[in-house]
Amino acid sequence: GAGVSQSPSNKVTEKGKDVELRCDPISGHTALYWYRQSLGQGLEFLIYFQGNSAPDKSGLPSDRFSAERTGGSVSTLTIQRTQQEDSAVYLCASSLAASGMADTQYFGPGTRLTVL
Amino acid sequence: GEDVEQSLFLSVREGDSSVINCTYTDSSSTYLYWYKQEPGAGLQLLTYIFSNMDMKQDQRLTVLLNKKDKHLSLRIADTQTGDSAIYFCAVTGGGNKLTFGTGTQLKVEL
Known about the structure:
Chain A is an all-beta fold and about 120 residues long. Chain A is built from no helices and ten strands. Chain A starts with a strand and ends with a strand. At the A-B interface, strand 4, strand 5, strand 8 and strand 9 of A face strand 4, strand 5 and strand 10 of B.
């Protein structure tokens, strides 16, 4: 597609429920990133996928958070047993990850998650 | 870990220059980036600079990098009302993941 797309654009859920957020990266981009933007914490890195390598999960805040990337393209971020502090905008980005060049990350519009 | 700091607010008059500053702690970043976020929108890449450069100019945007002081700035010439947004600097301290600054909200007044 023309850009990174994310769905849903907005998600309201009740505390304790599980949610799935989807990201479609730019076609041909091998790297995919998830970030979270919240009022208290700013923009935080969550997880990074690069080709067939093991993902960098160092930013995931707890074991309630997980992500997968199927077929090297679409990614799903899953939050289990959501808490109110999970309320944030979840941003996905993708890049070519070409060596020796700036790894320009292109961001999607985000999913605004509200946990009641 | 990496720490990236920005001032929270900047107010300028239309037509003036805006200078948004950023300081960081990790000197290993190869590239340093500036992103723009308009209300309700995602992050838009504005420009970036390679760490062995001191300056990069791109139309109305000028990026200055002082590696010794770990200081990055973005100058917007002839600031317009459409430039009102939040501006984030970002560095790649550990691998490809970005560490963002706190963001500077730029307000352009008529």
